[in-house]
Amino acid sequence: MANMNYCRFQNTLVDLRQCHDEWDEIDDDCPEEKMARYKMLKLCQSIVDSFPAEEYKPERAGDGN
């Protein structure tokens, strides 16, 4: 299901945390999942490298996670 524009980052953050929690539980017999995990890692690294986090920190950041 597609994310709605008004909560895209909230929903994606929940999904990304779930992926992180299961990162080492990947089925070694599933090359598609292994490739998707690799591509996700590369995308996350690209995001981190592209944007200084300080510029995007909200005024009320909660717990920072």
Describe it for me?
It is a single chain. By secondary structure, the chain is mainly α. It contains 3 helices and no strands. The protein has one domain. The radius of gyration is 14 Å and the shape is extended. The two termini are 24 Å apart. The mean pLDDT is 85.
What is the compact description of this entry?
Helix content is 58%, strand content 0%. With 65 residues, the protein is an all-alpha fold.
Helices and strands, with pairings:
Layout: H1 8-21, H2 31-50, H3 53-56
Salient structural properties:
extended; 65 residues; single chain; mainly alpha; 0% strand
Task: Give the domain tally.
Answer: 1
The shape is: extended
The helicity comes to 55-70%
Q: How large a portion of the residues is in β-strands, by DSSP E? A: under 5%
Mean pLDDT: 85
Structural class designation: mainly alpha
End-to-end separation:
24 Å
For the largest beta-sheet, the strand count, sense and barrel status come to:
none
The low-confidence parts are none
Compute the CA-based radius of gyration. 14 Å
- Secondary-structure element series: HHH
Please count the beta strands (DSSP E, at least 2 residues each). 0
How many helical stretches? 3
